[in-house]
Write the structure tokens for this entry.
Amino acid sequence: MLKGRATAEGTRAYASRFPRLPGNFRPMIGLDVSSIGIGTYLGEPDEETDREYEGAIAAALRGGINLVDTAVNYRFQRGERTIGRAIADLVNRGELRREEVIVATKGGYITFDGEVPPNPRAWFEQQFVRSGIVGPNDMVEGSHCMTPRWLTAMLELSRANLGLETIDIYYLHNPETQLNAVPRAEFLSRIREAFEMLERAAADGKIGVYGTATWNGYRVAATERAWLSLDELWRVAGEVGGEHHHFRALQLPYNLAMPEAVTLANQPVNQQRGTTLAVASAMGIGVCASASLLQGRLAKGLPPILREAFDRFGSDAQRSIQFVRSTPGINVALVGMKSAAHVADTLATAAHPPATQEQLMKLFQPAKS
Ligand SMILES: NC(=O)c1ccc[n+]([C@@H]2O[C@H](COP(=O)([O-])OP(=O)(O)OC[C@H]3O[C@@H](n4cnc5c(N)ncnc54)[C@H](OP(=O)(O)O)[C@@H]3O)[C@@H](O)[C@H]2O)c1
């Protein structure tokens, strides 16, 4: 296992190696983090995809991207194992130091081991039920669990898969899934137990900080069942971890077609309501935008107004990523990439400074007649 974690000194040194990427590195959770992170969600659970991802991750880390995002269940643990190999290889070659890279992963979903077993139900029984890791009432929708015992097992699996002693950001994966099955009071009590476990993991040096990686939770109205209140989560974190608690990161989808993080004021604070980005920013929570390209659909065929607003960019993918990384309150635009050619195209975006507020506002002006 690689010892250490991302540090302020290490990430600053990494950023200083890329003077040609102005405005690419920003402060987040006390580190210098690239405005684009590489995601590892999509793709088949096979060796060919492993090889592609390994090449893309190495190209990203060599090219100015120092945040890698994954989850224990992505491609049935192959996502994490591929990242582990890519980082270990660059470290062994002397091209990267562990302290320079921020690795984020997630726990919450059930995962197989590299492939779907012949009898998934029997496999799950054998692995998790007989060993007592999962109890009869722990699972929601047959796929999601966030008990301390489950998260402890998943965290150990992720550390082994990644070959890292410390995971820099550990997310509860789509915790709002639990709200489909249990009342909000029970949900908050489950969150409290999960946060207690994560605070212990931070104290033991197994994680740096923790957070919530979500799909609907922060994007829906406060009247919706799946809605997550940042204020509530922040309060729970303070109660279990004190003033210096480690709830410091969140993830939500944000892109040209899913703009709710800046358009929906769904987070109550101090008798007012703010957007998720405004409230997270005021709390000092780092925000990573997932699905920056709407899972590839925003990489081609953007309307002319967007092409005109970002006319200095060479591809629609670059324009879409520029929109995300330039939005105030977004620290990192996550882009899923298993192709090294896509890494090169995406990295060309980081050669431009983020768009100004004035440039962004042009998107919202009526078209000229
Ligand atoms: N709830 C959650 O926690 C959650 C949900 C979704 C996503 N995420 C995270 O966010 C990351 C990003 O989201 P995503 O992967 O779902 O979708 P995405 O980033 O919106 O899109 C990824 C797709 O875009 C393609 N692509 C990447 N760069 C390109 C370029 N320059 N030109 C053309 N096509 C390009 C990729 O192709 P190739 O792969 O072939 O390069 C891939 O098919 C995920 O990988 C994951 O880490 C988290």
About this structure: The chain has one domain: 8-363. The chain has a mean pLDDT of 96.
